[in-house]
Amino acid sequence: MLQIQGFVFNFASENTYVLYNTENKKAWLFDPGNMNEQETAVIEKFIKENDLTIESILLTHAHIDHVAGLQWAFDSFKVPVKMHQDDQEILDQFQASGLRFGLNLNPIKVEVEYVSEGDELDFYGERFKIYHVPGHSPGSVVYHNDRQKFMISGDVLFEGSIGRTDLYKGNYEQLIDGIKTKLFALDEETQVFSGHGNPTKIGFERQYNPFFK
Question: According to a count of CB atoms within 10 Å of the terminal CB, is the N or C end of the chain lower?
Answer without folding.
Answer: C
